[in-house]
Structure formats: structure tokens, C-alpha cells
Amino acid sequence: MTTNHLLELHEHGQSVWMDNLSRDIIQSGQLAEMVQNQGIRGITSNPAIFEKAIAGNAIYDSAIATGIKSGKSINDIYEDLVFADIQGAADILKPVFDESNGEDGYVSIEVSPNLAQDTEGTIAEALRFWQTLNRPNIMIKIPGTDAGFGAIAKVIAEGIPVNVTLLFSVSDYEKTTWAFIEGLEARVAKGGDISQIASVASFFLSRIDSKIDDLLDAIIKTTTDAEEIAKLSAIKGKVAIANAKIAYQKYKEIYASDRWQALKAKGAKEQRLLWASTSTKNPTYSDVMYVDNLVGLNTVNTMPPETIAACIDHCDIENRIEMDIDAAYSVIEQVKAVGLNLDQIMVELQTEGVDKFVKPFASLMASLATKVKQLTPA
What we know:
By secondary structure, the protein is α/β, with parallel strands linked by helices. The protein has 17 helices and eight strands. Strand 3, helix 7 and strand 4 form a beta-alpha-beta unit.
């Protein structure tokens, strides 16, 4: 019998969530089978995933037609479709939520990407999503932007689980963690229970390597020095994993602090690091490099279906998150030494990341408008 390497991750303290959701996998029983037999312990979604799921898929037509008959707006029809899928997935994952005492079993839904720079708008939408969805195992995704940090603290203070998304830099990860802690402290100050509030900080990976590799290739094209070319080439495909390992060291530091220990004494759960954007973009790299190299205690890895399939087949599972830490710091220093401004690159990546959600959201709404026109009786 073939070994499912995905199942080994849980034994090493890492939970596997799937970065994919559609009505097809809910209604076909595929999601339930993956949860029961393949080790999937959560679901993450985003506007790009829903565009792929809904646009041109006839499985949603009857629900769209119902919305039309009720006189609903395009946005309300969109939310009806998405909320139904989120609730359906949450119900399938509820046994995992119960068995893990609220550590896993979550389904993440993102606030509108158009609110990425709107603190109050994000808070209002997060509260509305939470109340409307009415499931204990929902996580509201809020981007880790400057406007997002204030929203994270307020939403956590309301007792709502939060998935902080679009994190690239270690400094933004730190701000995320302190916003989470600030939210818990505010809830304690109001006499609220904090023992059941879960959160993850989604640290993006492959997009970092794709961008930095392109920048390194551009420098390589301008030099004829073989030694310099070798030095630049040696950094390629190394930065995202190095950056993530450094973030994990920061995670350990923060959760050893007196400030956190005071919350832990009141039953608080740590905000786990979640590795996102884990599909390898460069075909010359291992298709499971962002899994194999970042296995570690109290972490989550959210994978698209193709990475899940690859990992089931040939992941090599070992706790590597704390291996070669000096080498990780060295990689970051080498990037700076060749003249790349890593801080600026991370800012650009986050800006591009927001845009990568804004565009498919707009595209989906346009597709829905077309579908509504087609299904509206003459």
C-alpha cells in the first residue's frame, strides 16, 4: 500500500489545510473524503479561488436564478454563493474542529480585497461575515497591511478567529503578532474569554522566490564575471524558505515573552504561522520544496490540490524549520550584498498581492453580471 506522506506532517506538529474550495468538491463528497482519509484539516479561500470556482460553472446556475427571482443585487448573489460554499465546507470540517479543540477544522473567507487599506471597513465586513456565516469554525481573512493591523486587533478583541493574509516580510509578521496579542489583551480587559480564539499568520513563499529570481537573472545578464554569476545563481530559490525560517525564530521569541505568558495563563492559543503560496512556480525546483523545508511544530501549510497530490506521492518529511538557521540569515545578507532592497521588494509583493485579489474579484463580479443577464427571463 502506497504511503500518504501528507499524513506524516500531522505527526510532526504541522497541520495541512487546502488552498481550494468549490461547490463541486463539496457536493461530490471529494472534500469529505480528503478530510477523512487524506489528512486535510482546514480550507483557505480567496477571491481568485472563487473566480475559478464560480465563473463559467453551471453548478451555480440554479442558485443564481433564485437570487434573480428574489431581486438581489450582483453583490448579494455573489455573497449567497460564496457563503453557502463556506458554510458547507465548515460543516464538513466541524468534526476536525471538535476533535482538535478548535486548533484546526477552519474555513477561511477573505474580506473584500477593495478594503485592504480601510481599517473600519474591514472591521465592519469581518463582523458581518462572522454573524452571517454563523459557524464557530470560520476564520476571517484580513490582509497584513498597515490598515489591516488595527482591524486584526479589533476583530480578535470581538472573539473572532482571524487568518492574517499577504504577509511577506518578517517585520510585517511581527506587527501581525503584536496586533493579535493586543486584541487578546483588549478582550481580557473587557472580561472576555480568550481560550477559544484561534488565529494564523499566512506567510507567502513562492511569490518571493519568483520575484527575486527574476531580479537576480536581470543582474546576471549584465555581468560576465563567472564568479559573480555563480554567487548570484546560488541565491536563487533560497530566499523564501530562509525568510520563513527567520520568521519562525521571531515567532518563538515573541511567544516566550512575559507579555504572551500572561495571556497563556488565561488559556490563550498561539497564533500559528501558516505557509501560503506553496506551489512551486519554477519547474526546475522541487514541486514540494515549500513543504519539505518548512515542517515544524505548531505550524500550518496550506497547499493547492496539485501540491497536495505531489506531497502525498513524494514528500520527504522531517522537522526542518529549525535546521540551517545560520545559513538562512546568510542568504538574506547575500541578497542585500548584491544590491537588492529586500524591504522594498516585500512592500511591492504585498501591493501586487492585493492586486492579484482585486482583479479576479472584479472579473468574477463581471462574469456574474453576464450570467445574471443570461439567466434573467425575457
